[in-house]
Amino acid sequence: MSNNQPEYPIPDLAVIELVDVLRALADPIRLQILRALADGEPHPKSMTEWGFDVQKSTMSHHFKTMREAGLTETLVDGRTHAIRLRRAALDARFPGLIDSLLAA
Predict the structure, then answer these.
(1) Is residue 67 within 8 Å of residue 75, measured between CB atoms?
(2) What is the pTM of this model?
(3) 28: exposed, middle or buried (Cβ count in 10 Å: 0-12, 13-18, 19+)
(4) What sign does the CA torsion over 24, 29, 32, 34 have?
(5) What is the pLDDT of residues 70-101, one digit of tens each?
(6) Mind giving me the DSSP string for 49-73?
(7) pLDDT score for 81
(8) Distances from the Cα of 101 to the Cα of 53, 85, 90, 93, 104, angstroms
(9) CATH number of 13-103, picked from 1.10.8.60, 2.60.40.1230, 3.30.200.20, 1.10.10.10
(10) Higher pLDDT, 73 or 1
């Protein structure tokens, strides 16, 4: 990705609420997405890359839910979209939360 600038709006760090983060991660698919994104690298948004047996619209909903909760950002480079965990921001706002969720 050459651009690596978020095109989709994400909440400011100061307004991210723990209850919204936990609500977003209450879904098993979104928790699996979190685990996949834990390496901090952008991952393709292509539905085939994720391997879930759900409709494209369902995956889009999961990605949107996570982005709106402040967990992820969507990076756009031309026609390519990728998802990245906002790990540093989340660790700053909620120290230890992501590590605890990954360990569970």
Answers:
(1) no
(2) 0.86
(3) exposed
(4) negative
(5) 999 998 888 888 999 999 999 999 999 999 99
(6) HH--SS-HHHHHHHHHHHHHTTSEE
(7) 86
(8) 23, 13, 12, 15, 5
(9) 1.10.10.10
(10) 73
